[in-house]
Amino acid sequence: MPSVKTKLTAMVSLLVAALFAASCGGGNPIGSGTDVDPNATAATVNGKPIKMEDVDRAVKQQAQGQDAKLSPLELASARLQVLQSLIEQEVMFQKAEKEGTVPSDEEITAEINKQKTQSGKSADEIEKEMRDAGVTDAALRDQVKKQLAIQKLVDKITGKIEPPKDAEIEAFYNGNKDAFVKKRGVKLAAIVIDPSNSGEGDTTTDEQTAVLKANDIIKRLQAGQEFSTLAQQFSEDQSRLQGGDLGYISEEDMKQSFPPEVVASLMSPQTDIGKILTARMMGKLYILKLQDRSDKDEAVTLNSPGIKQQVTDQLVNSRKQLLSASYQAIAMNEARIENYLARRVIDNPNELSGARPAQVTTPGTANDNTAANANTGSVTNLNTNTATPPKNANTTQTPKAATTPAAKPSSSAPARPAAPTGNANR
Question: Last residue of some domain: 267, 296, 325?
Fold first, then answer.
């Protein structure tokens, strides 16, 4: 069962950030390219306009340089998805204004600074990303203002949720015993070195400097320096915020994302706990520390450490999701909404071509292998592969019955262009 504390935090993030989760695309307004005024009204919510430029900016943020590859038909679809999310956001923000949950200027500034710090990016990188996405400081502040306002609104309306009773917790556990199993697997920590400049706090931007940095870190480990301290200082991955901790990963999950040689080394009884292994995955150098290993599946009970609290958090989380979705559904029903962008599509159904622009592609040349060294030696000879490290490190399976069936709330604010905070390893 995954850490439900993490899931509960993610739920709140979902409510304030899911706005663009389904959106993708970018480029010019629908129709014949640049013939639409970017200041034209895309929709209104209770008389308040949502401008076409706001839609385009949001789409551009999500496109991440891929907008030129979309056909007019795909572009129109992306805009409609983004606009729908903007409408839902505006409905919820207007509710937040009525409920008095709009943040102060000081709170907005503090949140922006927090996001920038957590991004691990330099001020110049953040400024460039904002400039490329067409996001001004004022627009960023407005985005964060709405994010915080809606999050505080959600917290307010879900604050009445009470913890489940012991009988309900026990009934949930008894109905999902198969999910409460600690699978055969390992607990890992990692220091990640990225030869490319991916903006994740990178200090290495080519192969040579990446290998030099990795070898220097290994020498520091051999000299007795703490793995977690070095991870915090040098890892070019969001897991550095947790000292490189990736959590517990089942063997089954590793086989889906780690190279076979790495899995075999980690699961081998000959690999001692505390051992340092090195590997290349997704073109990055990984220095892995084996923190613990379970050689067989183990059932956990309500008396196992943390399990009762996990069930409690999961049940509360499910109720909050349902309550939030219901609140938003009522708010949407009560709002006066005019979607002019959708109307233009209906009025001009034959102007949207499905043909994509011609693309110039560079043939890939990667035909790499994987190496895992069960030692603390040089990583110079590691080879690249395309394995993907797991994004979630969980102790047990997720009970399918853990989440109350509910429409996913999409009340939120635009994506944070300057400071993404997602952690790919937790």
Answer: 296
3-class DSSP state of 285 = strand
Using an 8 Å Cβ cutoff, are 164 and 331 in contact?
A: no
- Closest to 382 measured CA to CA, from 181, 191, 214: 214
* Same-domain pairing of 16 and 152: yes
CATH of the domain at 72: 1.10.4030.10
Among candidate residues 293, 228, 314, 308, the one with its CA nearest the CA of residue 9: 314
Q: How many CA atoms lie within 13 A of 257 on its CB side?
A: 13
What range does the domain containing 336 cover?
4-162+305-355
CATH number of residue 215's parent domain: 3.10.50.40
Greatest pairwise CA separation for the chain in angstroms: 71
3-class SS of residue 248: strand
Rounded Cα distance, 333 and 391, in Å:
37
Mean pLDDT of successive 10-residue stretches along the chain, which has 426 residues: 36 35 33 46 93 85 70 86 93 96 95 84 84 85 93 93 92 85 88 75 74 90 90 87 88 88 92 91 89 85 86 92 94 94 88 67 42 45 42 44 36 36 36
**3-state DSSP assignment of residue 252:** helix
Closest CA to 121 of 61, 200, 215, 178: 200
Domain total of the chain: 2
Domain boundary residue, one of 271, 296, 321: 296
Q: Which SS3 state, helix, strand or coil, does residue 39 take?
A: coil
CA distance 280 to 387: 8
374 backbone dihedrals φ, ψ, rounded to 5°: -85, 55
pTM higher than 0.85, yes or no? no
Q: Is 218 exposed, middle or buried (0-12, 13-18, 19+ CB in 10 A)?
A: buried
